[in-house]
Design a protein that fits this description.
Elements: H1 6-9, E1 15-17, E2 22-25, E3 36-39, H2 42-50, H3 57-72, H4 80-95, H5 102-116, H6 122-149, E4 156-160, H7 175-184, E5 188-194, H8 201-213, E6 218-220, H9 225-230, E7 236-239, E8 243-245, E9 250-253, H10 256-266, E10 269-273, E11 279-280, H11 297-300, E12 301-302, E13 305-306, E14 319-322, E15 329-332, E16 335-338, H12 342-348
Parallel strand pairs: 4-5, 4-7, 5-6, 7-10, 8-11, 10-15
Antiparallel strand pairs: 1-2, 2-3, 8-9, 9-14, 12-13, 15-16
The chain binds ligand LNRAV4D5.
Length: 354
């Protein structure tokens, strides 16, 4: 692999811990405004997660972990057990910010676990745990980039969906990390990105991120994806995930499921890229995942300007579930699950409770 220039490919940081506040790159207004908002308490972090100021499964877990550190500033406790009891209401409010990405609950569980054995230094323990969650995610993304890119035959075209880059993680990205690595290794010859209606993570975030790297990407309408596959210009669909179940069923941004159906029909391979923090072995299958439904107004207007007549009904689920049998490979930092099912998932991830 050519020596990877992370300084070139990995400069965007959506989350900045300031010691007394969390600064978040406001993704609602990218790419035209690159301003940060300052969250000074855990409820402000919860609101930033709910409003998609900060978004992306790993990124919302990291933000929530720092939100717990902020909540701790207002807690008086002698040890971790006392602190845990007093922090629980704030952690519940953070957990309630969004339901589908397991990373949020996973990060809060890590913070709870760190507190359980902590003594009088419990604040330092929380700070170290939040920092570890963030640095582990960055390392996982860089590792997955190399692992996933190795699956892609040189000269391939790739289609991605939503945004899974530095904006959605601690840096480098999951599916977009594989694309960055694949381009750097000259395995990926062309990148296509779906606009990802209604929030346009692809059109506003992914193509902008790649542009910062000097990586060319071609934007397509979501509705053009099947036609693109039919033309033979893509050999892989590479996407992220918000929750991967014990049988390999995967929740991801709305529109992923239909990409998987079209990919199988056209002989295009389908790769899911996510760190182990997105694997939920306690949820047996995708029908058990809560799918977030957001305000239908997100469908009825664009940047505040209505695009639909008044009085029109709209339904706005923002995730869907791709069944494991439509997935060719799940790439994690622990390795690849080929043709995922309950058995192949167990081989890499211990069943819940073990
Ligand atoms: C590596 S991000 C994973 C996942 O999160 C995104 O959802 P959202 O933009 O609503 O937070 C999208 O589903 C990505 O694939």
């Amino acid at each position: 692999m050519t020596e990877f220039d992370y300084a070139r490919y990995d400069r965007i940081r959506p989350i900045r811990w300031m010691g007394d506040a969390l600064e978040l790159l406001d993704q609602r207004h990218l790419p035209f405004n690159t301003g940060y908002v300052r969250a000074s308490d855990s409820d402000a972090v919860a609101e930033a997660i709910h409003s998609l100021t900060v978004r992306g499964a790993p990124a919302i877990g990291i933000a929530a972990a720092w939100g717990v550190v902020l909540a701790a500033r207002d807690v008086d406790a002698d040890d971790g057990a006392q602190a845990l009891a007093k922090l629980e209401p704030a952690m519940q409010r953070l957990n309630a910010a969004r339901p589908t990405a397991v990373n949020l609950a996973w990060a809060l569980a890590r913070m709870r676990s760190a507190l359980k054995g902590a003594g009088s230094d419990w604040r330092d323990v929380l700070d170290r745990e939040a920092r570890a969650i963030e640095t582990e995610d960055l390392a996982a993304n860089r590792g997955m980039g190399a692992i996933g890119a190795a699956l892609i035959t040189p000269g391939s075209g790739v289609l991605t969906h939503c945004n899974t880059g530095s904006l959605a993680t601690a840096g480098f990205g999951t599916a977009l990390g594989v694309i960055r690595a694949g381009v750097a290794q000259e395995r990926i010859a062309r990148v296509f990105a779906g606009e990802t209606r209604p929030w346009n993570q692809g059109a506003r975030l992914t193509v902008w991120e790649l542009q910062q790297d000097g990586i060319d990407a071609t934007l397509i309408a979501d509705a053009a994806a099947s036609h693109l596959m039919k033309t033979g210009q893509v050999q892989w669909v590479v996407v992220g995930a918000d929750r991967i179940c014990a049988n390999g069923d995967t929740a991801n941004k709305i529109g992923t499921y239909q990409l998987a159906i079209a990919a199988r029909h056209h002989g295009v391979k389908f790769m899911v890229v996510a760190p182990s923090s997105t694997v939920d072995m306690a949820t047996a299958s995708g029908d058990l995942i809560e799918i977030e439904e957001r305000d239908p107004a997100e469908l009825l207007a664009h940047r505040g300007e209505r695009t639909v007549a008044d009085g029109i009904d709209a339904w706005n689920p923002v995730f869907d579930v791709t069944p494991h049998d439509l997935i060719d490979a799940i790439v994690t930092e622990r390795g690849v699950v080929e043709k995922p099912d309950a058995a192949s998932m167990r081989a890499l991830f211990a069943p819940a409770g073990q």
